[in-house]
Amino acid sequence: KGKKPLAGRKVLVTAGGTIERLDPVRYITNDSSGKMGFALAEAARDLGADVTLVCARTDGPPPSGVTVVRTPSAGEMLAAVMERLPEMDAVVKAAAVADYRPAERHENKMKKGAETMTLTLVRNPDILQEIGNWRYSDEGNPRRSPFVVGFAAETTDVERHALDKLARKRADLIVANDVSQEGVGFGADSNAVNVYGAEGLVLALDRQSKRRIAERLWQLIADRAGWKPSGGEGV
Ligand code: PMT
Fold this sequence. Notes:
Keywords: Decarboxylase, Flavoprotein, FMN, Ligase, Lyase, Magnesium, Metal-binding, Multifunctional enzyme. This protein is of the alpha/beta class. It has one domain (about 10-100, about 125-225): Rossmann fold (3-Layer(aba) Sandwich). Helix content is about 25%, strand content about 30%. The protein contains 5 helices and 12 strands. The protein has an 8-stranded mixed sheet with strand order 5-4-1-6-9-10-11-12, with helices on both faces. A two-stranded antiparallel sheet has the order 2-3. Strands 7-8 form a two-stranded antiparallel sheet. A hairpin with a 2-residue loop joins strand 11 (about 190-195) and strand 12 (about 200-210). Helix 1 packs across helix 5. The longest helix is centred in the last third of the chain and has 16 residues, at about 210-225. Ligand PMT binds next to helix 1, helix 3 and strand 9.
């Protein structure tokens, strides 16, 4: 009998929505439940991979049998991902990372005062972009790099935005979900995705469970990365 398709592979998955604190009891976040990232981690585990799950705020506990690293904010997630990058065979970024954070983080709970208040936000690092830059930072010679997969949560012009993200962030694949559709994306148990590579659309998956989508994505990744089940008696 053959080995599991991801046996011997180390993969990192990000999940959930980052939280960007204003003060000890208040923060900015988004609707990500972590379900897509959890499904990817579970599927990779069951296919035989050694899985690290880097997660921000999520609904419910992470799956068992994977290494969990908790990173509430984008800044913490960036550090956790970059530190582990060189040892990984694949990185899949299903987390919804806040693009902005409050410019100031108050040490004590903010007090009520004036009728209106203005929050100043500053840009967060873009983790997928940082990974892309790292891959090509050695005088144009691509490093030994994990296979890198980003997501794109869009509501309009899905294909154009996905292809733009693929090129700009120098990822190998972008998984686009049209989150304006019912039962797709944030919080849902199902998803529907179009996957883009350098040559354009490479896989379209109709609405189905996030777990099933995750399995199809790992098959595609193993295929595109040229992974063969290693070291086994199998085929
Ligand atoms: O968690 P669920 O409830 O299951 O929902 C799943 C999901 C909708 C969150 C997921 O399928 C998804 O689309 N995740 C990416 C959401 C997102 O932030 O998309 P984006 O188009 O803003 O970002 C594009 C890519 O860049 C993503 O891989 C994101 O992780 C990454 N990014 C974005 C901003 C940032 N500062 N750093 C990043 O690394």
